[in-house]
Amino acid sequence: MSKGILLVLSGPSGSGKGTILDAYKKDHPVYFSVSNTTRSPRPGEIDGVHYHFITREAFEEKIASGGMLEYAEYCGNMYGTPRDKVEEQTEKGVNVMLDIETVGAANVKKACPEAVLCFVVPPSMEVLRHRLTRRGTEDEETVNKRLTQALTEIERIGQYDYVVINDDLDKAVADFADIVATAQLAASGKSLTAEEEAHLSELKEKSAALKAAVKKEFLL
Fold this sequence. Notes:
By secondary structure, the chain is an alpha/beta fold. It has eight helices and nine strands.
C-alpha cells in the first residue's frame, strides 16, 4: 500500500483557501489536519473542527515535548500542526492536508521533503481587500495589517510547488483537485505514461508562470 501524500495549502487571509479545501473534501477522501492556535475563535468557528483553540501555555508545552510538526507566530498568535495524526494517517495511505501559513509550510518542507506545497492567491490586491472587509469581523487597522502580511506571504511564493488563482471558485477547486491527483500519481512510485509525464510538466510550467504573474501583480 502506498503512503498518503502530505499536501500543504497556504495563502493570504481572504484568499479562499479554506473554502477550496471544504469544497474539495466533499468529493474526495482526505484527512484534514486541524491546527492548534492560540487566537480566539471567529463567529461560526468550532473548536476541534476549524482549529484546536488552546492557551499559549499549552501550545508552548506541546512545542517542548516535540508534539508539533511545525509552528509559527502570525499576527500575534501561535499556529501549529500536531505531529501524531499526520504521521498516523499518511502511514495508512490517506492523503493529509494542512492549511498553514508560509513559515509553517517551509518548516514542514524541511521536516518532510516529500510534502507538496500549494499556494492560493486572489487575482488582485483589490479583490483581497474587498474579501477582508466583506467579512465584517475586523476593523480597518486589522485589515491593513492582514494586507501587509499578505505581501510578505506572497514574497515567499517561490517555495511552493503549485499555484492556484482563486478568481472563480469552481475553477479553483478543479485546478486544486488536478494538482492533488497529479501529485499523488507522481508520488506513487509507479512508472508514468508519456501522457502523465506531459501533464505533470504542464502543471509545473503553469505554476512557474503564475508565480511570475502574481509577483508582478502584487509586488511590482
